[in-house]
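Title: Comparing notes on inverse folding

I've been comparing how different people in this forum approach sequence design from structure. To keep things fair, I'm posting one structure and asking everyone to reply with a full sequence. Here's the target:
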C-alpha cells in the first residue's frame, strides 16, 4: 500500500527552513505604541488647555451678564449696559480665539515634530532590518552552496 503524505510534517519542515526573526515586528509594535502614547499626550494637553480657555471665557461672560442684568435707575443705562456688554464680548472673543489659535499652532508643531522623529526612527529600523535580512540570506546562500 502507498504511504500517505504527512502534510503537517512537510509544512513544519518547510517553515523551519525559513529563518524568521520576530524581533523586528516586536520593535515595530513598540515604536508604534510609543508614538501613539506621545500623540495622545499632545492631544490631551491641548484638550486641557482648550478647556481652561473655555472656562475662563465662560466665567468672564457670566460676570458681564451679571452686570447687564442688574436694575438700573435710568432707562438709558440699560442700552449703555448692553453696549458695554457687546463691546466686552467682542474684545473677549478676539482674545480667546487667539488663545485657541495658539493651542492649535502648538499641537500642529508638536505633531509634525513627533511624526518627523517617528519617520527617522522607522527609516533606521527598516535599514537595520534590511541589513539583518541580507546578512541572513547571504549566510544561508553560502551554507547552501557549501553543501
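Reply #1:
Here's my take.
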Amino acid at each position: 500500500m502507498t504511504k500517505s503524505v504527512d502534510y503537517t510534517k512537510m509544512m513544519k519542515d518547510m517553515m523551519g527552513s525559513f529563518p524568521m526573526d520576530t524581533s523586528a515586528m516586536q520593535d515595530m509594535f513598540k515604536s508604534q505604541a510609543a508614538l501613539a502614547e506621545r500623540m495622545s499626550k499632545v492631544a490631551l494637553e491641548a484638550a486641557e488647555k482648550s478647556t481652561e480657555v473655555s472656562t475662563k471665557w465662560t466665567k468672564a461672560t457670566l460676570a458681564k451678564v451679571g452686570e447687564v442684568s442688574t436694575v438700573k435707575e435710568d432707562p438709558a443705562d440699560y442700552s449703555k449696559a448692553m453696549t458695554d456688554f457687546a463691546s466686552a464680548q467682542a474684545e473677549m472673543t478676539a482674545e480667546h480665539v487667539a488663545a485657541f489659535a495658539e493651542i492649535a499652532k502648538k499641537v500642529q508643531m508638536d505633531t509634525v515634530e513627533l511624526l518627523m522623529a517617528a519617520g527617522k526612527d522607522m527609516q533606521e529600523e527598516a535599514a537595520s532590518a534590511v541589513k539583518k535580512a541580507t546578512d541572513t540570506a547571504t549566510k544561508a546562500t553560502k551554507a547552501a552552496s557549501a553543501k
